[in-house]
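User: These chains co-purify. Model them together.
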Amino acid sequence: MKRSLIKFCGSQRSWGWLLIFWALVALPAMAQPTNVPALSLEEVSRAMAKVRTVFTRFVQERHLSLFNEPLRSEGCLCFEKPGRVRWEISSPYKSILLSDGSGVAQFEWMDEKWKKLDAGLAGAMQSVIAQIAAVMEGRYASDSREYTVTLAASPEGPVITLVPRNATMRKMMQAIEVRLAADLRGTRGIILRETGGDFTDIRFSEQVVDLALPARTFDQKSPLALADILQAAAKSKAPR
Amino acid sequence: MLKLIPTPSAGVGFLALACLLGGCVLAGLPAATPLAGIPAQDASRTARQTLATLFPERYRSVQRALITVGGKQFTCDGVLEASTTEGWHLAIVSNLGLVAGLRVNRDGSSAALQVTPLFRESWTRQFVAQDVRRLFIPPTDFVASGRLPDGRLVCEAVPDKDGTVARYIFSADGQQWQELEVLRGARPEYHAWLRGYRAFAGSARKMPAEMEVKSKRYQLHLRLVELNLKDGIPTETIR
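Assistant: Joint model of the two components:
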């Protein structure tokens, strides 16, 4: 029982993270401006292999059926090959989850300073992030046996919907919708639809690809302040 | 093809969490506080009023929780909504969705509204509902039982059927609730400290923005990061 729970939780979490990163990096690059062609996972792999770094701001809203108002948070996401990830929430509290490729670290802003946590399930988190790195190299996208993928047009831009094939996964997550910009120059949002009506809406903005992320962006002992990363992003190419 | 296989350490971690919540390890709890002195009637009345008006009747709050189990730390968000008719609704949310949903009714009963594979229903009922009751639903029936050596006022609620007694520790004048001790016989079961009192926009009352709990099986550090009084007063964010 415990074993199956562990396996299920690991799969579900990994699946969600992988799709977010896949959508962020690969889908904009592979989408075509007209006629919305069928997805080609080979194209996804090729597009993903070219990306070195990503920076984006995000607003995340969790819509829970228990409540009328969503739970809202804001932050920034950084990725750098090989396997470096930083997911930072800046409001309504401050928290950083990061990996330097070999291990994960989690920090909470408490008593006016960053406190490094002795994070539980660190192995699981590193496993997830290691797979994100694999995604960034295009290996994951070369196999679509995990989901059914469909592409639909909308006035705001194409919407790619991923439905897990695994029935157990579908008990937790019904679908993930990836909303591309009308000009196909970026991923503007992702909706994770859970069973029971709850959903998480993540909207990205100010995406920058292949920027030079400063040293210590992914430092596990003393990560660079977000302000310095924002400065680096602003100096890079125009937002996608 | 990549397979999402949990690592051995992940498995150990989750098993450890399950095992610890099941009661395998005891966290260090402070000894029961000895009482001294007779409480003043005025302070007792003030303490009663303090607890009765500590939280608004209707509000929505967002909390950031840091849970320590067996030396390992886990974070999650909590949304707590209080209403005069439906009691208290709490949702616990992790990075990728809802972990658990709970309702505590005005009569003290509780129901798991949403159960997910991420968190056992029994944990929701046993631990989460207990924290909601103890921290956010103060009792209406208690008596002053003494003073601590430092002069602070101690009030005791009516014991539960199993003999568990909750002791509420106030400032000497009874105007601020500072700690909660739960004892079974002479044994400490649960201790909470309430800090960071502050007033929210539109209300003169001060509420604890930080709560720290030590229990036998886990430690909890709770920060109130948003509070919205549900009478049209805008949300205020604490940073």
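Residues 2-30 of chain A form the longest helix (29 residues).
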